[in-house]
Amino acid sequence: MIDDTKSKYRARLPKDLLSHKNKQTCLLGISMNNPNQTGDKLKATIELINKRFSSCVINISGALQRHNLHITGLSKHDAYSQAIAMETQWKHNGWTVISKLSKL
Taking the model in full, what pTM does it have? Predict the structure, then answer.
């Protein structure tokens, strides 16, 4: 479980986005197998979003994971079922951090 302390990591925006001070909304795409988008690293990203943007759209692309699973040998049906299960698990684990987003 993620506590209320500040993340030990620091998220940064690419330099080309730093000059866009009028950006109000961000899009956070979540790839469920990306270790940078879980736990304390996700928390650092949420902290940055809370500082820089007035709103944020979150896209958790769980169903897209089915393609990665399918090429590893699972049937299309099994790959889709497993991808949806992975998305559900990610949401369960990640929601504590996502709920810290002050601009939901």
Answer: 0.68
